[in-house]
Amino acid sequence: MKLKFFIIALAALSFFTACNSSNQDTEIVIVDTFTFEGPLYEGSNPSQLVFPVDLNKILGDKFHEGMKVTDATLSSASISAVDSGNLSGITSMVLSVASDNPELKMLSLGVVNPVKPNSNSAEIKPSTEANAGEYFREKQYYIVLDVGLNKDIEESFSLKGEIKFKLKHN
């Protein structure tokens, strides 16, 4: 009888442990504006956005104490001109994530090269190898958009980004 109880208890414990440790998927969408302050020069010109990591706010009802993000991959990213402008003069874009932690190097999430001339928006091609999970375990992270310009420009401009991440968390 004791052996039966022990086996049932062990099976129940294994079941609950397996249910607790399974990864869940959540897609988050970040919509924000990257501002590029002129004068800007031919070649690489970065702009960054800062995001505090608050898993309770990010995951909502799926949040529980002690959880962590294990994987974060870029699902898609669309970059568009603000105020009905176009992407004239932009030849390429690289979307990256960075952190204040010196052990975490900037990670390229995706790229578009070339940008179609005179288009109003561009779709970033996500990297199949980039995993930004570690950045979601920091206090904050930075999304960096680096645009390549084909010439110097004096004016400032802004680009709207809609960035989707697929998060795996326990």
Strand content: over 45%
How many whole angstroms does the radius of gyration measure? Answer: 21 Å
Order of helices and strands: HEEHEEEEEE
CATH class label:
Mainly Beta
| Overall morphology | elongated
- Identify low-pLDDT runs: 3-21
Present the secondary structure layout.
Blueprint: H1 2-21, E1 24-36, E2 43-52, H2 55-59, E3 69-81, E4 90-98, E5 107-112, E6 121-126, E7 140-149, E8 157-169
Antiparallel strand pairs: 1-8, 2-7, 3-6, 3-8, 4-5, 4-7, 5-6
Give an overview of the whole structure.
An 8-stranded antiparallel beta sheet has the order 1-8-3-6-5-4-7-2. The chain has helices spanning 2-21, 55-59; strands spanning 24-36, 43-52, 69-81, 90-98, 107-112, 121-126, 140-149, 157-169. It is mainly β and 170 residues long. The longest helix has 20 residues, at 2-21. It has a single domain (24-169), classed as Jelly Rolls (Sandwich), CATH 2.60.120. The chain is built from 2 helices and 8 strands.
In short:
This protein has 170 residues and is mostly beta strands. It contains 2 helices and 8 strands, in the order H-E-E-H-E-E-E-E-E-E. It has an 8-stranded antiparallel sheet with strand order 1-8-3-6-5-4-7-2.
